[in-house]
Each structure stands twice: as structure tokens, then as C-alpha cells.
Specification:
2,3-Dihydroxybiphenyl 1,2-Dioxygenase, domain 1; nine-stranded mixed sheet; eight-stranded mixed sheet; 17 strands; binds fe (ii) ion
């Protein structure tokens, strides 16, 4: 799903890059036009000029158990917050999983993040509120079901409040080589209402026969799907791209680490972590 990138936002981003970046030779008239386009980025531009999914945050029952599990799956790119409360960050290629715990909050996928070029939080928050949506601290916009979309200036990465953490597992390698995020799946209560929200943030949407709408964010995908009967709307699953691997061995490893494999479908493996949070591995 990730290879055919969005034209709208990508094309504009390339124009901006060529205006700001100097290495591309363009005719004078085009250069002037591009410079004008770059100047027009005001920090609150919608749909977003995004480089795609960057990280996600999860709330778990036991942050050390969860970090140990994810290090076992993805390897030893582990950081932690300098000051309490304990919070871990497991690198998954160019992306990462932020692992925290909240008093009285059951384990869940909490929010996901895309990076934005020319992002200005103050202006963007004002634009989001002007549209009638909620803007929370740290750049999180809530969709109509309360699912959090975080915006950070590109390039983002870990903040300077993190330090490398000691190895949490004895073994040296993960089960897979992670490259970065591939997708998130959001279950919403009202597709029309959700689409009204996501159409404003992401330029290109692709309606699927099963009722889902897939929004492209650079080379990653935000899948908006109707909620299942009897279930609450939620950030349901996230997908991580991984390198060549033997899914039979990966399945065995995940189960030894305390996860459960739900199934394999071609180049995709679906599992749940020790908190029953849903993850997808996408072999590329
Ligand atoms: Fe975050």
C-alpha cells in the first residue's frame, strides 16, 4: 500500500524543497514561482505538507515489560526519559514507539504522529479550533471520536529529554529489522463525520470496497474504517515495515516473548503485544 505516494502533498513538498534547496536547476520563471510557493507556507497549512507517520504512543500496564517485549521484536534501539515517570522509546527504523503508563488508564494505542513541513503549533492549533475541532497540548488534534493525531515539525525524532537506556535483554538482536511505520488503522463511529475531519488534513483519499478510506501521508497510510459492531471507536492497530525475514521464526519468537500471533497474510503478520495491543509487520 505504501509505494504509490500521494501526489497532492508530495508534489507541493517537492516544489518547496526545490525552492529552498539549491541543488536543483530550474528555469528562472519556475524558480521564482517556487520561491513564492515556499513563502506561502504559513505554519498552519491544510491539507498537511507531511513526510508521513513518524511515531506512535502507547499506554501499557508495565512499561518495562512492554519495552522488553518490543526490544525483543525490533532490536536494541532503546531510549528512556531522563526524569520520572519512566517512559521508554523503542526505535523501529526511522520511527519509534513511545511507551508510557498512566494511572487509571487501561492499556491502549494512544496516539500517532505525522511530521509536518513548516509547522507552527500556535497557528495550526488556531486553525484546528477554527474548524471546530479540539487541539490538545503537544500538537495533538483530536478527531471526532477522540483519536489523537499528533503533529510535529519535520524532521522530529526523539526530544532532548531522552537518553540511551541500558540493554534490557541479554540477546543482541531483534526478531526483525524494522524500517519505519507503514500504516495505522483507526476505527471510527461515523465515517462521514470522520472523513470531514481527515479530508482536511490529508490530501489524497482512496475509498476501499470494504468501507475503509485510506489517506496517504507521504509513503505511509492512515486507514479510517468503520468501527466493528459492539466495539468502541479506537486507534486499533499500527503497521511497521520490516526487512526480509522468516515469519515462522518470527511467530515463534513473538510467542516466546509473551505476544500472540493472530495470523499471517502474505507479507503481513499480525500479532498482539503483552497488553493485547495490535501490531502488523509488513515485509518489504
Ligand atoms: Fe507523541
Amino acid at each position: 500500500m505504501s509505494k504509490d505516494t500521494a501526489m497532492g502533498a508530495s508534489t507541493r513538498r517537492e516544489f518547496v524543497a526545490s525552492a529552498a534547496g539549491a541543488a536543483i536547476a530550474v528555469p528562472l520563471a519556475a524558480a521564482s514561482w517556487n520561491a513564492a510557493s515556499a513563502a506561502e507556507i504559513s505554519g498552519d497549512e491544510l491539507p498537511l505538507i507531511t513526510n508521513g507517520l513518524e511515531h506512535l504512543g502507547i499506554v501499557v500496564a508495565d512499561v518495562t515489560r512492554s519495552a522488553t517485549f518490543y526490544c525483543g521484536v525490533f532490536g536494541h534501539g532503546l531510549f528512556r526519559e531522563i526524569d520520572p515517570p519512566l517512559r521508554y522509546y523503542v526505535m523501529t527504523g526511522k520511527a519509534y514507539i513511545a511507551i508510557g503508563s498512566r494511572e487509571g488508564v487501561a492499556p491502549k494505542l494512544d496516539h500517532y504522529c505525522v511530521t509536518v513541513e513548516g509547522y507552527n503549533r500556535e497557528k495550526m492549533d488556531a486553525a484546528i479550533k477554527a474548524l471546530g475541532y479540539r487541539a490538545l497540548p503537544r500538537g495533538v488534534a483530536l478527531d471526532p471520536d477522540g483519536i489523537g493525531l499528533q503533529l510535529l515539525e519535520d524532521p522530529a525524532g526523539l526530544t532532548d529529554t531522552n537518553i540511551p537506556a541500558d540493554r534490557i535483554l541479554g540477546r543482541g538482536y531483534g526478531l526483525v529489522q524494522p524500517y519505519g511505520m507503514d500504516n495505522v488503522v483507526l476505527r471510527v463511529s461515523d465515517m462521514d463525520r470522520a472523513r470531514a475531519f481527515y479530508d482536511k488534513f490529508f490530501a489524497k483519499a482512496d475509498a476501499r470496497a470494504d468501507g475503509e478510506v485510506w489517506y496517504e501521508a507521504a509513503d505511509t497510510v492512515i486507514r479510517v474504517a468503520p468501527q466493528a459492531a459492539g466495539q468502541a471507536p479506537a486507534f486499533e492497530r499500527y503497521g511497521i515495515r520490516v526487512g526480509p525475514c522468516d515469519f515462522a521464526k518470527v511467530k515463534d519468537g513473538i510467542e516466546k516473548l509473551g505476544g500472540a500471533v493472530e495470523g499471517v497474510d502474505g507479507d503481513r503478520l499480525y500479532f498482539t503485544d503483552p497488553d493485547n495491543l495490535k501490531v502488523e509487520l509488513v515485509k518489504v
